[in-house]
Design a protein that fits this description.
Blueprint lengths: L12 E2 L3 E5 L9 E5 L11 H22 L3 E5 L14 E6 L1
Antiparallel strand pairs: 1-2, 2-3, 3-5, 4-5
Bound molecules: zinc ion (ZN).
Amino acid sequence: MDCAYCQREDFVLENELAGAFFADKPRAKGDMLIIPKAHVENFVKLSSKQKAAIDQLIFSTKKYLDQKYQPNHYNLVVPEEDKLKASKHLYINLVPSY
Ligand SMILES: [Zn+2]
C-alpha cells in the first residue's frame, strides 16, 4: 500500500505497536502525531493491544513535551475517518497549548 505513515521510521518516541513524530505542519510548538504502526483507518478498528500501545505513547509523548517545552496544557485530537489524508492512516494529534 502506498501510505507515507506505514513507511514512517523517524519516530521521536515509539513502542512495539505505535510511533510518535513531530507534525509536518505544526499548529503549535511541539505539535506531535501518534500513529499505530499498522495501517488502521478508524479508532474503533484498533485492537485492544494497539489502543494500549497508543495510550502508553500519548503519556510518554506528553512527558517528553513537558520536559522539552513546558506547555500549559494539551489538546488531544482524534480526526474522523473522512478527515484523514488520502492514505487514510489513523493518527492522534497531541497539540500543546501555551
Ligand atoms: Zn498506513
